[in-house]
Every structure is written in C-alpha cells, then in structure tokens.
Amino acid sequence: MVAITGRQAMVLPCQDIRLEYDGKLTLVGLYTGNLAIPTVPTVAPQLAFLIVIDGDLSEPLQSLKIEFHLPQVKEPTVYEVPLDPQRPQHEKGQTRWRFQIPFGIAPAVLNPGRIVCKIIHDKGEIETGARWIVHAPQPMIEPPVLPTPEPPKQ
After folding, report:
1. Of 1, 30, 96, 151, most Cβ neighbours within 10 A?
2. Strands 8-14 vs 47-56: parallel, antiparallel or unpaired
3. 107 preceded by cis ω (within 30°)?
4. Residue 129: pLDDT band by 50, 70, 90 thresholds?
C-alpha cells in the first residue's frame, strides 16, 4: 500500500450539483472528456464543478480560496471558502482530511481552451486542469427530398 502525503486536489466538471436531504451530493451530467461547444462563444446557463481537496490530518487547512479561469475570460471567478473552526471529528486510524466543495459559474461564457482551477491555501497553490473546451460545430443536416405528389385523378 502506498502512503499518500501532502495536499491534493481534483476537479469534476458537470452540468449541476444537487445537495440531497441527507447531505449527499448528486452530480448531474458529469463531463468525462472535453466540453464540446457548437458556437464560439457559447453561453451556458450554468457550469458546475465538484472540487475535492484532501491532506494530512497533522496539517489542517488554515485558509482556502478557489480561482476558476475560463478560456478567454479576463477575470477569474473567485470563491473564498469559509473554514468551519468546529471541524468534524475523525475516526481512529484516519490519517487524512477531505473537503468536497460544490462550485458553480452561472452564466458561463465558454470559449475553446483549457479550464484552469487554482486551489490557493495557507501552504501554497495547487493548479488543476478541469478539462478542455473544444469547438465542435453541429453538422448541417439536409432535409429529405420528398417526391412531388401526383395530382388527383378526375
């Protein structure tokens, strides 16, 4: 078994994230590859991300900020994450903490390029790639040619 040390982060882009009544998160429309847009730019009503950050229990987070950089958008979307001083207790044998943070951009202006998410914390920065946006125009579909009906016989 390989021991994981230090702080790590992962970003999962999707269409929507729902908080269930029991505290679970439901990800809707998880992107498993590039995000394809039909026109440049495309304005999506919303783009959601689940950010997962973990680290050693011996090094709790003191501060946390998230920056999302969408391609060709001048200013990043920034979120200062409030950290609860009454963090949950951990079980005996647990060695790592984990934060799961749902994050949304609405509306989202999408252009081709790499989405970058920066996790800025008290000990530095983690840059994650949150997928690429690619231009994939929809093919024009020609309507079928219908035969001309014959005039009714008299």
Report:
1. 96
2. antiparallel
3. yes
4. confident
Distance spanning both ends of the chain, measured CA to CA: 88
How many other β-carbons are positioned within 10 Å of the β-carbon of residue 105?
Answer: 18
Asked if 73 and 67 touch (Cβ cutoff 8 Å), the reply is no
Residue 109 has pLDDT above 90, yes or no: yes
- The model's pTM is 0.82
Give the CATH architecture of domain 8-85+100-135: Sandwich (2.60)
Asked if residue 73 lies in contact with residue 111, where contact means CB atoms within 8 angstroms, the answer is yes
Q: Are strands 77-80 and 25-28 parallel, antiparallel or unpaired?
A: unpaired
Exposure b/e, 115-133, CB count within 10 A at least 16 = b:
bbbbbbbeeeebebebbeb
122 has a pLDDT exceeding 90: yes
Tell me the average pLDDT across 40-69.
Answer: 93
